[in-house]
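Sequence in, structure out.
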Amino acid sequence: MSRKKGRVLYVDDEEINLVNFRETLSDEFEIFLAGSGKEAMALLAREGEMALVVSDQRMPGMSGIELLTEVREMYPDTIRMIISAYTEIHELIEAINKAEVYRYFVKPWKEDQLRFSIGNAVGTYALGQEIKQFVEQGRKQMAERMRSLEGEKR
């Protein structure tokens, strides 16, 4: 039984980071890359919801927090992470409060920690999707049963 790879979007304005991310994780996940927040939003519009969006914090045009806040609004089930070379506390708090990030990584990332956290995030997303399907099936079955009972009363 083959397991579907989780879809992960990584956004960073530095090409070397995009290459390293893809090389590190493409065996385990379906990796999408974008060089800016604007490019990421266009990619999401084209490709649809991702299990996880990981973004650099400081990028020209749109910060990682701004991007992940938009992602949260458009795709609330998508898990969000920030990777940054900077550790200012106000950015960390803003990432948690506005973008509701799952994890904040400091560059350079440690490969084993990154791989583990991304695996957990993708697993959390997949579990959430399964629960949503299960609840929806339950609703449909309940509605069918109610219609059936209404028919029996008549």
